[in-house]
Amino acid sequence: MGRDGTSIPDEEWERFLRDAEAGAPGAPEEPSARARMVARRMAEEPPPREGWRTHAPPVRSKGKAWYFVAFFVLVALLVVALDPGRVTGWFGGGGDPAPLAAESARPTRPPATEAAAERPTLDDPFRGSPAAAWGDGVASLPLPRARATGWMSKAEVARALERSRDFLAASGLDPEVLRGERPKEAIALINPRQKDMQEYVSAAFRAPSAEHDPLRLFSRFAPSKVRVVGDVVKTRGRITYGEGKRGAVEVTADVTYVYPVVRAAAGSEEVTRTIVRREIVMGWDDPSKIITEPGTFSMVSYRSDTTNGGCDNHTGYFVPEFAADRAASDGTRGPGVDPYDRSTSMDTRMAEAGEAECGAATRL
What we know:
The structure is a single chain. By secondary structure, the protein is α+β, with helices and mostly antiparallel strands. It is 29% helix and 16% strand. The N and C termini lie far apart (92 Å). The strands form two sheets. Strands 1, 2, 3, 4, 5 and 6 form a six-stranded antiparallel sheet that branches. Strands 7-8 form a two-stranded parallel sheet. It has helices at 10-22, 33-44, 62-82, 84-90, 154-172, 175-178, 184-188, 195-206, 323-328, 346-353, and strands spanning 135-136, 226-228, 234-243, 249-263, 271-284, 298-307, 336-337, 360-361. Helix 3 crosses helix 4 (84-90). It is elongated and about 140 Å long. The protein has three domains: 10-44, no CATH class; 59-88; 130-361, no CATH class. The protein is built from ten helices and eight strands.
């Protein structure tokens, strides 16, 4: 019988016996009885099962392996070159950038613009902005070391610096003021005997105008139109001081505020930003020479530069534009302005703006 169970023809079997007996070259040898028994047993038994701890390594082709490695390395290099931010995100670095150290001197150049194309969101309102690496509120505005100056002792200078920073917080960061309330705490820090400033503030809130604009000193949004996103306002700037006229201690604050806002309508998600840079000089007068109230300062000077706060706006509130507003405008604006650029002085910035009421922001 053949292995497949069929019978072998008699002619084939006789030829096999003759060749085997004659010892013809290449003649097959008949397997022994033991060999036939072992072969039959192996054919009938199923193959052994692989042990659960055993491992049969796959056959590897070194040439193909190197080909795939080279291919994926090339793809990775292309992704890094075209979108480095995405690669950073793969490794957990796509969050907020490392915070900047406090500004100790005027920077020599504007902030980088690599992330400017990234749009802000409700969850990340400073996304795509240099302000993402800035500090929060007054925490990013450290006070300089106090020393005896003018008519004040070291301890008195320290208190004057703290009160000056309190004014910055009450005028540009207070949540209630940002929602349109009157900045009572900030106004209370201004010398009530300074007649021109008291008249200015009174007129600014009674009937805002180009000449009496409260936004030069205070940050406010109309709650019926927009609201600030979250409870963080990013700031960047410096506080310095020195001796002024009649021995007064003059504290100068040059600060940029970044306010992320959204329309007040329910469900609004588009986030834009209003950026304000103010330079305020506060004079802490010698009460023996100037009539003043304890704990208040005289306003020496104030200047402001606002981006996306409303063009020709004299409502007493910032009126930021959103994408649809910008698309509908006729594009008539003043010179291009980078609101995050603090490398120029306020003197230079105001001179560049000239008579233009509004500049074209190069980024928000």
